[in-house]
Request: fold
Amino acid sequence: MSSAWSYSSLSTYIKCPRKYQAEKITREIPREDTEATIYGKAVHLAAEEYIRDGVPVPEQFAFIQPMLDKLSALHGDKYCELEMGIAVRDGKFEPCAFDAEDAWFRGIADLVIIDGEECRLVDYKTSKSPNYADTKQLALMAACIFLKFPQVNVVKGGLLFVVAKAFIKAEYKRERRFDIFSELDGPLRQLEVSRETNVWNTIPSGLCKKHCGVLSCPHNGRNA
Reply:
């Protein structure tokens, strides 16, 4: 890859390469916070400060405290908003700093708890339903953990839907730690081809006309 990727950026590319280009390459549209993303960031911050520093949970988020108390009670070294990177050196995956110049992949884990050979991995979600839960980001974070913490042999992860009060579990073993990269190999190769050829195809959807900020796209309904 010619530059580092994250799961969110790859997801944008899969949904629409043209939108990815506008956000990541030409920067013609800024990534603006919505009401949902602002709320999500506030929940993440409240959880981080409570578990890491014992800062009281704001009253508006009191409903998440019982869940956070259970996580705080788990034994092990706790890391909140853990930034991790993976570099590819001599054909091998290696751990690297999040901001390393040769980072191939970058990701941030909401909560990591290391207890000997076992790790607990939690990703907070603020959407109202877990029906379309996607565990690929958990798998990517697990791969980072196996590289960063060589003593860990199993990662027990989960998507914690704090509003829906649901927990979607996933477990990863060291011997299959890089399976996720094989699963994403196709989209990653396509992304590299787009970068090399500067061809960014459009994928029209029902969100184009009212919600997409790429005004130069022919499928955008606000480009008049």
